[in-house]
Amino acid sequence: MPPSGSSDIKSHTITVGLLEVQGAFLEHRVALQKASQLLGNVDLRITEVRTPEHLTHELDGLIIPGGESTTISIYLKRNEMEEPLRKWIQNDRHVPGGLCAGMFSFFEKGTENPKKLGGQSWLAIMNTEVSRNYFGRQVHSFESSIQLQDSELKEIVKNDTYPGIFIRAPAIVKCHLPEVKILATLRKNDETVIVAAQQGSVISTAFHPELTEDCSWHLYFLKTILNIKPK
Ligand code: GLN
């Protein structure tokens, strides 16, 4: 038997689902694996989520990757996943991470969402108002340093800033404080824009952390799971 404290002992099993509809889910797998190695004592299992049956209570976390929010919502509707997903997310023992198009699925009110009645998103689980393509079209995609606003994140990143990759990204234009915690902002064209936020266990970012070498955001995601997971 290995001595106590050995890194061979995996004291926690974490299961993370990846909504594999479109987007960079392979990059998320790599980033999650890298982050779990940094944690050391975690046995990470990553499972694909494509049907309502995949949304089990075995999942501690779920990543909704970027892509095209309309395509994702059509897929969910066609596969009768909307309600099971909403229910899964509403359980506060679960940690959902919505990135870019995924962030867009979480808002309560949209500024450019004419197809959905009343501008409401189908999930409406974050008390935020989100502008879908805040920074413009695909050609206006960019990389920029973002400012971290949360002390735990700063500690994980070991910096006050992080390289953000924005691809036809949304932004949070209004949010209800302190219910919603601002995790990161971006200075652009003389304005400060909210680009990452958290409400309870729900985490969302407008940028793509899976495309950055630094896996700190995935580490923050896994640590959030560990913080709420019963020992
Ligand atoms: N703004 C895009 C949309 O909502 C999302 C882009 C992305 O996920 N990279 O469809």
Task: Outline the structure in words.
With 231 residues, the protein is α/β, with parallel strands linked by helices. It has a domain at 7-130 and 196-228: Class I glutamine amidotransferase (GATase) domain (Rossmann fold), CATH 3.40.50.880. The protein has six helices and twelve strands. It has helices spanning 25-39, 69-78, 82-90, 101-104, 151-157, 216-228; strands at 12-19, 42-49, 61-64, 95-99, 109-110, 128-131, 142-148, 161-166, 171-175, 181-188, 191-199, 202-205. The chain has a nine-stranded mixed sheet with strand order 2-1-3-4-12-11-10-7-8. A three-stranded mixed sheet has the order 5-6-9, with no helix packed on it. Helix 1 (25-39) packs across helix 6 (216-228). The radius of gyration is 17 Å and the shape is globular. Glutamine binds next to helix 4.
The oligomeric state of the chains shown is single chain
- Outline, from the CA principal axes? globular
Kindly provide the name of the CATH class of one domain.
Alpha Beta
Number of strands: 12
Distance between the termini: 22 Å
In helices, the fraction of residues equals 25-40%
Give helix and strand order, one letter per element, not per position. Answer: EHEEHHEHEEEHEEEEEH
Structural class: alpha/beta
Poorly predicted parts? 1-7, 113-120
Share of β-strand residues: 25-35%
According to CATH, what is the topology of one domain? Rossmann fold
CATH architectural type of one domain? 3-Layer(aba) Sandwich
The distinct bound ligands, ions and cofactors come out as:
glutamine
Largest sheet: 9 strands, mixed
Strand order of the largest sheet: 2-1-3-4-12-11-10-7-8
Radius of gyration: 17 Å
CATH superfamily of one domain: Class I glutamine amidotransferase (GATase) domain
Mean pLDDT, nearest integer? 88
